[in-house]
């Protein structure tokens, strides 16, 4: 373009000027671009810093919020405790006031009661004195009248008793004389009765010895019979076994033997029953006699 | 002579056909013995357009700065 003749020199100068200015503008724009890049970098750094700061602030805010919430909860708890303490304190103060009021009322009531008791005591003393005086007067009058009546009554009774006693003395004298004779006879009879009782006791002892000996003999005899019965039963068992083993033809013989065995058994049972009844009767008689002897001895003593 | 043709005979064709215009402008710049008003006018118009573009492009920054 510099060598071209188609453009006038003024326009060429204008273009040169504009070219220089364009170069300056280009430099300025480069500077602006670098500055913009730095600003963008700084902005990103600032944004990162802001994000970090925001995060940090959020964390700190949450931490602070938690701490504040804990503090508020603790404060509310302590506040409620303090409120309860104040309520208790106010209640205690009310109770204290009530107690003081009741104490003063009690003092007043006690004074009133003391006064009433004193007046009552005075009245009771006066009443009691008058009543005791009246009662003692009445009692004295009554006692005197009763004593007079009793004196008269018992004087009469003593008089009649003296007469009766003198009569009884006379009768007793007579009775003692006759009683001494009777008692002598009775003592003699009792002595003879004692001797007879002693003889009877001796007889009873001998009879008992004899009965015991007899019972021993009987029991020995009974044992022998039992032994014999066992032998018979054994023989019977043996015979029954042999009989059963032999034949049916010996059944009649077996029946006879069985009958004799049962008869012997019945006899032994009858004898045993008789002996038992005799022994029981003897024992009853002896016990009755012993009881009678004891009664007689008891009566004599 | 080419300048006169462009100014009168081929004016419409010069203004409408871009390829023809660039070729003619290059020829004029290289081989023209004298000043060509049409070319100067065209280059000044181009310069004005470029400057207007620059002004429009930097208008946002100027507004921000303001």
Termini separation of chain A: 191 Å
> Main sheet of chain A, how many strands, which sense, barrel?
none
Shape of chain A: elongated
Rg of chain A is: 74 Å
The overall average pLDDT of chain A, rounded, is 84
Q: Helix tally of chain B?
A: 4
Helix count of chain A equals 2
Q: Name the largest protein-protein interface in this structure.
A: A-B, 11 and 15 residues
Quick one: biggest sheet of chain B?
none
Low-confidence stretches of chain A: none
Q: Report the portion of residues of chain A in β strands.
A: under 5%
Helix percent of chain B reads: over 70%
pLDDT averaged residue by residue of chain B: 82
Total DSSP E strands of chain A = 0
The CA-CA distance between the termini of chain B, in Å, is 51 Å
> Which class do the helix and strand fractions of chain A yield?
mainly alpha
What can you tell me about this protein's structure?
Chain A has two helices and no strands. Chain A is mainly α and about 300 residues long. Chain A has a domain at about 185-300. The relative contact order of chain A is 0.02. Chain B has one domain (about 1-65). The model of chain B has no long low-confidence stretch (mean pLDDT about 80). Classes of the chains: A mainly alpha (about 300), B mainly alpha (about 70). At the A-B interface, α1 of A face α3 and α4 of B.
């Amino acid at each position: 373009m510099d060598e071209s003749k188609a453009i006038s020199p003024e326009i060429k100068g204008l273009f040169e000027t504009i070219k220089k200015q364009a170069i300056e503008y280009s430099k300025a724009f480069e500077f602006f671009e670098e500055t913009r890049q730095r600003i963008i970098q700084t902005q990103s750094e600032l944004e990162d810093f802001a994000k970090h700061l925001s995060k940090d602030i959020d964390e700190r805010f949450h931490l602070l919020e938690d701490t504040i919430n804990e503090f508020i909860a603790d404060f509310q708890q302590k506040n409620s405790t303090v409120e309860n303490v104040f309520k208790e304190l106010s209640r205690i103060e009310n109770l204290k006031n009530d107690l003081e009021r009741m104490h003063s009322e009690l003092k007043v009531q006690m004074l009133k009661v003391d006064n009433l008791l004193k007046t009552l005591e005075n009245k009771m003393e006066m009443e009691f004195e008058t009543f005791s005086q009246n009662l003692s007067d009445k009692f004295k009058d009554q006692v005197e009248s009763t004593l007079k009546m009793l004196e008269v009554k018992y004087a009469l009774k003593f008089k009649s008793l003296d007469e009766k006693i003198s009569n009884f003395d006379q009768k007793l004298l007579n009775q003692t004389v006759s009683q001494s004779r009777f008692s002598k006879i009775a003592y003699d009879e009792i002595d003879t009765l004692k001797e007879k009782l002693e003889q009877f006791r001796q007889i009873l002892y001998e009879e008992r010895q004899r009965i015991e000996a007899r019972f021993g003999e009987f029991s020995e005899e009974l044992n022998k019979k039992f032994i014999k019965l066992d032998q018979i039963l054994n023989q019977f068992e043996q015979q029954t076994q042999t009989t059963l083993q032999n034949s049916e033809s010996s059944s009649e013989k077996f029946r006879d033997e069985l009958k004799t065995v049962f008869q012997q058994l019945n006899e032994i049972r009858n004898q045993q029953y008789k002996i038992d009844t005799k022994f029981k009767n003897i024992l009853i008689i002896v016990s009755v006699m012993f009881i009678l002897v004891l009664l007689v001895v008891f009566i004599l003593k | 002579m080419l300048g006169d043709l462009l100014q009168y005979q081929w004016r419409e064709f010069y203004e409408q056909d871009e390829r023809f215009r660039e070729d003619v402008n290059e020829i004029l710049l290289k081989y023209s013995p004298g000043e060509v008003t049409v070319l100067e006018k065209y280059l000044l118009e181009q310069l004005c357009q470029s400057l207007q573009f620059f002004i429009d492009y930097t208008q946002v920054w100027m507004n921000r700065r303001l």
